[in-house]
Amino acid sequence: MAFRDVLEIEVIGGNGGDGSMSFHRAKYMEKGGPDGGHGGKGGTIYLRAVEGVESLDRLLGRRKYKAGTGNGGEGRLRNGADAEDIIIDVPVGTTAFDADSGKVVADLVTPGQMKVVAKGGAGGRGNSVFASSTRQAPRFAEIGVRGQRRRLRLELRLIADVGLVGYPNAGKSSLLAALSNANPMIAAYPFTTLSPILGVVSAEGEQERFTLADIPGIIEGASEGRGLGLEFLRHISRTRMLVYVLDVAVDPARELEALQNELRSYDPSLLDSVALIALNKVDTEDEDVAIMAEDELVTFGLPVLRVSAAEKIGLDELRRALFELLPSRELWAQTHALEEESDVVVVAPLELRLSEEVNKDGQTERIWIVTGGGFEEKLERFARHLEDAAEYLSGLFKRQGLYNALRRVNAREGDTVDIGGLRFEYFDEE
Question: Is 269 one of the annotated binding-site residues?
Answer without folding.
Answer: no
